[in-house]
Amino acid sequence: MKISLAISSLLGMFLLLSMVTNAPTKQWNSEDNLYDVLFALGETKPKHYIQGTPEQIKQGEEIIKEGRTHRMGKRSRRVSKYYMCTTCHNVEQEDPDLRVSNPETRLDYVKAKGIPFLQGSTFKGIVNRETWYNDDYVKKYGAEKIGEAHEDLRNAIQLCAVECAQGRKMKDWEVESVLAYYWSLQFTLGDLNLSSEEMRELNQAMVQRGDTRKTLNWLKSKYAQKSAATFFDPPPSKHTGYEGLTGDPTRGKDIYELSCLFCHQPGGVSHYLLDDKKQSFQHLKSKIPKDTHFSLYQIIAYGTYAIPGHKPYMPHYPLERMSKQQVEDLRAYIEQQAE
Ligand code: HEC
Ligand code: HEC
Questions:
Q1: How far is the CA of 148 from the centre of ligand 1 (A)?
Q2: Is-contact 79 165, C-beta < 8 A?
Q3: What does the pLDDT look like over 74-92, one tens digit per residue?
């Protein structure tokens, strides 16, 4: 009697234990890749989904940061003679809040990290976006070219290699390597800044498997699915500047150093050299009110175009990459330093 009781209670314990271990016990934590969670919630794999090998990831990283890589013992040809992808794009998180693209908060954030403030959006989390070259970029490159790049990350890579970087079309294996590297930069749950309460709720929702669509949408509300781009014009009067805004030279200094100098200091991508000398500031200052691309207002809003015989050009800043307030901040700094 005693023995059978002992056996049956042991059996009961085993049963309980196995029930516990068979239950969906996967607890998501901050290191988990965001896409793994989305897939578990029923999200379909995007067109650009690949599982890159460590070698592909390394090759992709070299293409992005050094412009070329090695394959089967041979050095590959440069994608662009003029730029690295990282001339215009960071590879680290650059917005403190992934839901909004705000150049004001970005400036402080990149400054603290010691990375530049650039026209192109970061590659961190680029695989978590669902469209590329958004909004006003259609104007710049035309609906036909954008059509292919807007909804397909592979085409967006190609478009930028040829148009932005003024380079050559990449080979298929190169595009796949860049993609593999991009996948290594996808968001983790931790990047979304969820509170511990929200993490608990997420894990509960995963166990209960109720309305997974709702959980999916909730997760997607924690980051932007695209990098927005709104183009803008110089102010009607370059003397007055943008109406109602007063520049702050301290903020302007950060923009000058983290953005302009990144490309215009000696050894950068431009022949047009800038530095901290009074003459440089005086030159920039004298051009501000003029109708020329040497005017801050014009160069920031419009950039320059690549012309035959001289391929390096300067990409313009959409409002999401530099605000009108920041243009005034930069002006205030330049005018202060020119005195
Ligand atoms: C001269 C500057 C410049 C260089 C060099 C450059 N890009 Fe870009 N790229 C841009 C700008 C500007 C955009 C449009 C804004 C943005 O990033 O969303 C862009 C957009 C992109 C996008 C779409 C991003 C999105 O979410 O809309 C991809 C992908 C891309 N570039 C890949 C590359 C790759 C790969 C290279 C190197 C082979 C490269 N870029 C080199 C300036 C550049
Ligand atoms: C991503 C690199 C990059 C950044 C960032 C950048 N520029 Fe440029 N800029 C260029 C390139 C390339 C040219 C084309 C001229 C050349 O080939 O040297 C250019 C051209 C210019 C010109 C016209 C010069 C000429 O000879 O036609 C001015 C003025 C200028 N930039 C100012 C600025 C200012 C001010 C900032 C900061 C707000 C800035 N640039 C940020 C790369 C950059």
A1: 15
A2: yes
A3: 999 999 999 999 999 999 9
